Amino acid sequence: MKLVLEAHDLLWGMTVDYLTDDAPLWVKEVLLRGDPVVVRRAITSADQVAVGIRGQLRHQRYATQMPRSAITKQLKPEALTHVNTQQFEHLAERLQTISSIMKKFSECWGYTGSFGFELATGIQTVTQQSDIDLLIRAEQPFAKKQAIELLETFQQAGLSVDIQLQLPQGGLALKEWARNSGKVLLKRAEGAVLVENPWN
Question: Where does the Phosphoribosyl-dephospho-CoA transferase MdcG N-terminal domain start and stop, copy by copy (predicted)?
Answer without folding.
Answer: 7-77
